[in-house]
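Help needed: design a sequence for this.
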C-alpha cells in the first residue's frame, strides 16, 4: 500500500505543470521560477523606463543586435537604430508623439527553450500627439529573449495593432466623412450657381 501511494505521489510531482515547464526549459523548478521572476522584472522595468522617457534604461535590456518592428511597420536593428527612431518620433523637430503612457500585459508565462524565451501579450498605449490628438491604442506584441551570461536580453520585439479597427483609422474615417460631406455640399452649391446662371442667360436671350 505504501509503495502504491509513493508511486502516485511521485507521478504527481513529476507531471505537475511546474515540473513539466522545468523539464521543457532544461532546468529544475526553482531555477525556472527564478527565471520567470527575472523576466517579470525586465517587463516592469522597461514599462517604467518607456513611460519615464528613460531611453538608456530601456536599451539596457535589449541585445546589441536587437530587431524591433514598430507599430508603423518600421524595422530597426541595433540599439543605435532604435535610438534614432525614438529621437525621430519623440524628440526631433518633426516629432509626432508628445507623450506616451504604456501598460504591458503578458498572456502567459514565457516559453523557455534553454537560453531562449518567447513571450507574447497585449498593451494599452495612451498617445498624446504633437497635433493635439489624444488616442488610446490596444496593441499586441511578441518578444524573443536570449540569455547571455547571467543576463536576459530582448533579441527581437514585434509590435502591432488591428489594422481594421483602431483609433487612428476611426479618425481617418471621420475626416473622410466630414470632408466628403463638405465636398458634396460644395458641388451642390456650384451646381445651383451654374443652374441659375444658365437660367438667366436663357431668360435674356
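Sure. Designed sequence:
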Amino acid at each position: 500500500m505504501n509503495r502504491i501511494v509513493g508511486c502516485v505521489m511521485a507521478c504527481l510531482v513529476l507531471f505537475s505543470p511546474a515540473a513539466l515547464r522545468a523539464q521543457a526549459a532544461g532546468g529544475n523548478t526553482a531555477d525556472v521560477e527564478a527565471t520567470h521572476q527575472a523576466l517579470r522584472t525586465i517587463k516592469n522595468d522597461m514599462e517604467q523606463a518607456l513611460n519615464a522617457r528613460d531611453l538608456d534604461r530601456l536599451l539596457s535590456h535589449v541585445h546589441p543586435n536587437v530587431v524591433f518592428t514598430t507599430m508603423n511597420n518600421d524595422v530597426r536593428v541595433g540599439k543605435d537604430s532604435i535610438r534614432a527612431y525614438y529621437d525621430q518620433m519623440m524628440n526631433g523637430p518633426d516629432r509626432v508623439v508628445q507623450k506616451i503612457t504604456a501598460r504591458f500585459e503578458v498572456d502567459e508565462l514565457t516559453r523557455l527553450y534553454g537560453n531562449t524565451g518567447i513571450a507574447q501579450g497585449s498593451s494599452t498605449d495612451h498617445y498624446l500627439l504633437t497635433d493635439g490628438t489624444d488616442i488610446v491604442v490596444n496593441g499586441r506584441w511578441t518578444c524573443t529573449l536570449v540569455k547571455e551570461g547571467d543576463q536576459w536580453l530582448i533579441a527581437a520585439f514585434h509590435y502591432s495593432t488591428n489594422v481594421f479597427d483602431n483609433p487612428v483609422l476611426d479618425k481617418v474615417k471621420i475626416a473622410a466623412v466630414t470632408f466628403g460631406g463638405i465636398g458634396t455640399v460644395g458641388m451642390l452649391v456650384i451646381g445651383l450657381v451654374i443652374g441659375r446662371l444658365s437660367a438667366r442667360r436663357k431668360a435674356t436671350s
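The first helix runs from residue 2 to 14.
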